[in-house]
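Deliverable D4.2, example record:
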Amino acid sequence: MKTAIIATLISTAAAFAPNAQPAAQTALNAEAADRRSFLGAAAAFGAAAIPAAASARVDYENVAYLGGGSTVDVNNANVRAYLRLPGMYPSAAGKIVTHGPYKSVADVYNIPGLTSAEKEVIKKYESKFVAKDPAAEYVIDRVNNGLYR
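Output generated by the structure prediction step:
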């Protein structure tokens, strides 16, 4: 990358340099012209090698299910979304976010090691759960999203 930057700077400076050399130095002029064309080509290659900006998905259509509303997405919501549901956090909520993905809300009951008390509290809030398709942007931060009290 440094070479491409230096080549760009040199080719730019060479374009504005005065061309007042004696005619006797034609071999030197040919070498300089070859160098300028090489550096110009290197600068063009360097500019072409810079990747274009990726088009990111700005709006997530299921953002309401990530914990800001009354319904919680069991596949994408962070563990902190379960704080609004008394009895869910931390034990049942921790097990929900560390397992999955779930095809339906009923799959939550198949979590290994789920106690009967945790199953009861999940049953209590089952109507508030939804199982949307997992989105990589949100699944990666389900256990710890870096927000602390």
